[in-house]
Every structure is written in structure tokens, then in C-alpha cells.
Amino acid sequence: MDDCIFCRIARGEIRSEIVLEDRDFVAFRDIHPKAPQHILVVPREHVVSLNDLEQRQGGEGHALLQFIVRVAKHVGVDESGYRALTNVGPDGGQEVQHLHFHILGGEDLGDFR
User: What would the pLDDT profile of 91-111 be if each residue is shown by its tens digit?
Assistant: First the structure.
């Protein structure tokens, strides 16, 4: 998808503060952080939302979760704790139609409401 902002970041067309990357995923800092550590994790391949992983047979979901754990370790929140969340669809608050997880940590995040 040529005009997707996350695809463009993953391809290096839009500058971003990359935290970690591999062949399949890119992690970069959110430009409007909600916590001291607020990282976005996106697949390089355009996937609209978490719902689209169900149709895939290649284990991408498992690889994505493993990458999220690597990111948490990389930024030092794996021991103290972090929140990994994704929004799906308009009622779920998904603003960019490209699967992405928010990794939030670095402080007590309190109760989720």
C-alpha cells in the first residue's frame, strides 16, 4: 500500500526514530508518547488489523509477539512491566489502517480503563 504512513516508515521513506528492526517488523517511537517508553511495532508487510492475521498460515502472529518481547527487553521495560495493545477497527480506536502494537512502559501505568 503506497500511501500507508506505516508502510512508508517501514520502507524508510519517512524518517522515524527506529528502536529495533528485523526482516519482518519495525519498532519506532510514537511521535505523541503516552508514557516514557511508547514504541509502535508494525509488520513491514501491509496488514490492516489483528483480524487479518487469522487468515494467514505462516505464523506471523507468533513472530510478531516474539518481536514485541524483544522490543520490551531492548528498551528496558521487560522486568518492570509494560503494556502491549492494539486497536482494531473504528470502535476500537484504530486510526491507522495498518496493524500496529503500542508498547507502553517506563512508569506505573495504573489501572486500565
Answer: 999 999 999 999 999 999 988
CA–CA separation, 76 vs 20, rounded Å? 13
Q: What are phi and psi of 54, to 5 degrees?
A: -60, -35
The whole-model pTM stands at 0.93
Could you give phi then psi for residue 52, rounded to 5 degrees?
-75, -15
What is d(CA 89, CA 59) in angstroms, rounded to the nearest whole number?
Answer: 22
Instruction: Give the DSSP H/E element, type plus range, for residue 28.
Output: strand 25-29
H/E element, 68: helix 60-74
Residues with a catalytic annotation lie at 100
Contact call for residues 47 and 96 (beta carbons, < 8 A): no
Residue with cell 494467514: 56
pLDDT tens profile 48-77: 999 998 877 778 889 999 999 999 999 999
At 34, list the grid cell.
503516552
CA distance 61 to 38: 21
Question: Which has the closest alpha carbon to 86: 95, 73, 76?
Answer: 95
